[in-house]
Specification:
Length: 518
């Protein structure tokens, strides 16, 4: 499928109504698909104003703006191509080739752009070989998370990426990472590329290979990160960045990082040395936070004193977690239940007290069904428990987590943590944090709404001798500046903050060292 490239004797002008028509057709296509269908293909359309901003910025950084050879490997209905007409005369566009995997979008694109000299390839970009080289690549690649890609297909894509770019990506990398790396084979020497992608690659482990590619394989000259509160997509809660590079041997010893506002008028700008970028694991620190020195990197971390584990993933909270009233109603034996802190939304306390049995003193006390007996013994000795488990055999037991277990109703072994940290939240004020540390004086374990902190042996031994330290440590963790946790974690669209166990472990805690020598 495709239209002919422009002929030298033809002069095009863009009908102003075509963008309105494109937006109307885009909306119709989106309406015909469920959000789950669109997520599987990563279909999140670029807003018109943002597309124009990106294209305009890219043209300014081209060496040959009067000879534009345009390429977009995830075309959609053509937001960037429409923006190109708005920002450049068509006489300057000497060739345009695009790829679109979805036939319905490709058909609409052909109808829209048949008279405007674009060659539309209806195919999977990761399966297409270059027909030529291009000097202006602008793309909003599909934001498809790794678990939505078939395992066999993912292996093929990873092989292709490594073959084309020389970079081996983790199996956890999203599809957008493969698009960015595979595009290198379509780029002419000196070509400019602008990629509108999730900013998460700047912080996560799978992003290390992408960052190495940007530093070692191409000439990275700017990364602009939008303020996470300023959501760029109406239908995707994602923090966005635009990555700019040229296909050149990297010569720059520094990269411009910008944040907030627009590409041309950012709120914050700072030039960061490549040396700092190689040393720093979290690029989202830039440009708002200072470069960390080697002295800073040697400051004691939480990992020196604690183990941090994610709470239990039950495989079905509604089935395995219940209150005392329901346990009694079902006639289930209390001996197979242990107290648990479930959703962080319903636990407002910052300190959990307990009764004489270790059960938390909360307005809503919940318990986790945690039976380690085999099915035959349960059937013989506990008929009501057996009956309850049977009620979940055709539903809960077939879920992803449960069916992977040796016995589907067995729960992870996770002891009651000394301190609990909520791992996701929003900052309600300048001095308030998105995360809460909760002192747990009960025997309650926690679900995966929380991160569980367990003292390492050295700290644990000290706490045995000095029980007062438990509260002092909790108070100091709770009193940390909100930015400490935010800087180690990650921020999503709308200001949603999240911190993983490995990120929490990396938080600076110099006060603990001083506390332990008192």
């Amino acid at each position: 499928m495709g239209t002919q490239n422009r002929r030298s004797c033809t002069v095009w002008t863009l009908d102003e109504s075509i963008e309105n028509r494109r937006l109307s057709l885009q909306n119709e296509l989106n309406t015909c698909k469920s959000i789950d269908e669109r997520r599987r293909l990563g279909q999140f359309a670029t807003p018109t104003l943002l597309a124009r901003e990106i294209v305009s910025f890219g043209i300014k950084h081209m060496d040959t703006p009067k000879d534009i050879r345009f390429f977009d490997p995830a075309f959609g209905t053509g937001a960037f191509y429409s923006a190109l007409f708005e920002k450049a005369t068509f006489d300057n566009i000497t060739k345009a080739t695009v790829v679109e995997i979805d036939p319905s979008f490709a058909n609409v694109a052909c109808d829209l752009w048949a008279d405007y000299g674009v060659n539309i390839i209806n195919a999977d970009f990761t399966e297409v070989d270059p027909d030529d080289s291009y000097n202006f690549i602008i793309c909003n690649p599909p934001y498809v998370r790794h678990h939505l890609i078939d395992a066999y297909r993912k292996a093929e894509i990873r092989r292709k990426t490594e073959q084309v770019s020389g970079v081996s990506l983790s199996g956890l990398a999203g599809l957008y990472c493969h698009f960015l790396l595979q595009s290198i084979q379509w780029m002419a020497e000196g070509a400019v590329a602008g990629w509108l992608i999730p900013s998460e690659f700047m912080d996560v482990n799978y992003g290390i290979a992408v960052k190495n590619f940007l530093l070692d394989k191409v000439d990275l000259f700017q990364i602009h990160r939008f303020n996470p509160v300023d959501i760029q997509f109406d239908d995707a809660l994602v923090s966005s960045a635009v990555v700019w590079f040229r296909k050149k041997t990297p010569r720059n010893q520094s990269v411009l990082f910008t944040y907030g506002g627009s590409l041309d008028s950012p709120q914050v700008s700072k030039v960061i040395s490549v040396e700092s970028l190689r040393r720093e694991t979290k690029w989202s620190r830039f440009p708002c936070l200072p470069q960390r020195s080697s002295i800073k990197l040697s400051v004691p971390k939480l990992k020196d004193y604690f183990e941090v584990k994610r709470g239990i993933a039950t495989g079905g909270n509604d089935f395995f977690i219940m209150d005392e009233v329901r346990i009694v109603e079902l006639g289930l034996p209390f001996e197979f239940f242990r107290p648990v802190l479930s959703s962080a939304r319903y636990v407002k306390e910052v300190e959990i007290e307990s009764d004489e049995f270790g059960n938390p003193l909360l307005s809503q006390r919940l318990f986790l069904l945690d039976c380690r007996l085999g099915e035959d013994e349960i059937r013989e000795r506990y008929p009501k428990l057996w009956s309850y488990l049977e009620s979940g055999r055709d539903s809960v037991a077939k879920g992803y987590l449960c069916k992977a277990r040796r016995c589907w109703y067995f729960q992870e072994r996770r002891e009651a943590p000394m301190i609990v940290c909520t791992y996701m939240g929003r900052q309600s004020g300048e001095n308030s944090g998105a995360f809460r540390f909760i002192l747990n004086n009960s025997k309650a374990t926690v679900t995966n709404s929380y991160l569980a902190l367990y003292p390492r042996k050295l700290l644990s031994d000290v706490i045995v001798r000095r029980p007062d330290l438990k509260r002092m440590i909790w108070e100091m963790l709770s009193g940390m500046a909100p930015g400490k946790l935010r800087d180690e974690g990650r921020v999503y669209g709308g200001g949603l903050q999240k911190i993983e166990p490995s990120e929490l472990l990396n938080v600076d805690v110099p006060f603990l060292e001083s506390l332990l020598v008192l």
